[in-house]
């Protein structure tokens, strides 16, 4: 789908596009119905404004919006303006730069932008209010990419009643932060490393979480229904391979035994 118009029309059209394509939860509170979108619309709108204002207009490429089941990505042609780096954006240690100062001034006069350089902080705050991770940034093939990670999409296989409060809170933590290390667990719950390892191993044994990566730098993530499917497929394949190997070996042994 292609959106056209002047910069103000594009801001309105993309906001409408997001609202039409996002999941929205609704529940009653007293006599009111509360609606909550999958992502904070203010954060996405801020990212679109950022893309429109800071893109390289000498590039003939389009700004692209990609919506996936678990994330939204906004790609802006031109990459970062030197000397800005992705690391500076992540740490909020950058000085504001703009290719298009006239556009910045125009949007500030229309109150569509606040003080220069506050956009990323505002996006972070909006995502925190939704209980979601901060947006991430990267440069890819001449584009500057902002990625918003959505709510956890997987389904926990089973949560036994005997889990302790730390383990239950760790699951909630993983739904938004997506990963946790033993060191994180120690810091969050003020427990010893032995207790942290025992709690996490118990969750792993129950297939609520799984370990990803090496022993030194790895971390735990939630175990989802997709993992169950993959495990089932792998088990089926392994069983088939083992059965085939065993049948072949047995046939060979039987044939050998029959020789005079």
How many strand units? 8
Global mean pLDDT: 81
- Whole-number tally of structural domains: 2
- By CATH reckoning, the class of the largest domain would read Alpha Beta
Gap from first CA to last CA: 76 Å
Please give the CATH architecture of the largest domain.
2-Layer Sandwich
Radius of gyration: 25 Å
Low-confidence stretches: 228-242
Gross morphology is: globular
Strand-residue fraction?
15-25%
Biggest β-sheet description: 4 strands, antiparallel
| Main β-sheet, spatial strand arrangement | 3-4-6-5
Q: Bin the helical content.
A: 40-55%
The name CATH uses for the topology of the largest domain is Heat Shock Protein 90
Order of helices and strands: HEEHEEHHHEEHHHEEH
Structural class by secondary-structure content: alpha+beta
- Please tally the helical runs, counting DSSP H or I stretches of 4 or more residues: 9
């Amino acid at each position: 789908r292609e959106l056209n118009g002047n910069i103000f029309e594009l801001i309105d059209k993309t906001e409408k596009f997001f609202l039409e394509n996002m999941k929205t939860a609704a529940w009653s509170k007293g006599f009111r119905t509360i609606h909550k979108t999958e992502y904070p619309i203010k954060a996405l709108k801020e990212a679109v404004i950022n893309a429109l204002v800071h893109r390289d207009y000498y590039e003939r490429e389009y700004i692209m919006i990609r919506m996936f089941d678990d994330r939204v990505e906004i790609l802006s042609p031109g990459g970062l303006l030197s000397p800005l780096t992705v690391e500076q954006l992540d740490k909020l240690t950058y000085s504001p730069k703009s290719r298009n100062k006239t556009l910045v001034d125009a949007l500030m006069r229309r109150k569509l932008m606040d003080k220069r350089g506050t956009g990323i902080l505002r996006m972070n705050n909006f995502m925190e209010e939704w209980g979601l991770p901060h947006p991430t940034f990267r440069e890819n093939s001449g584009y500057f990419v902002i990625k918003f990670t959505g709510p956890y999409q997987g389904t926990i296989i089973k949560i036994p009643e005997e889990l302790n409060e730390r383990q239950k809170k760790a699951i909630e933590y993983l739904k938004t932060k997506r990963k946790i290390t033993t060191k994180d667990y120690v810091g969050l719950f003020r427990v010893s490393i032995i207790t942290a390892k025992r709690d996490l191993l118990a969750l792993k044994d129950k297939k609520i979480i799984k370990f990803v990566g090496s022993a030194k730098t790895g971390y735990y993530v939630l175990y989802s229904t997709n993992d169950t499917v993959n495990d089932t497929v792998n088990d089926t394949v392994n069983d088939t391979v083992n059965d085939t190997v065993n049948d072949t070996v047995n046939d060979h042994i039987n044939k050998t035994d029959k020789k005079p």
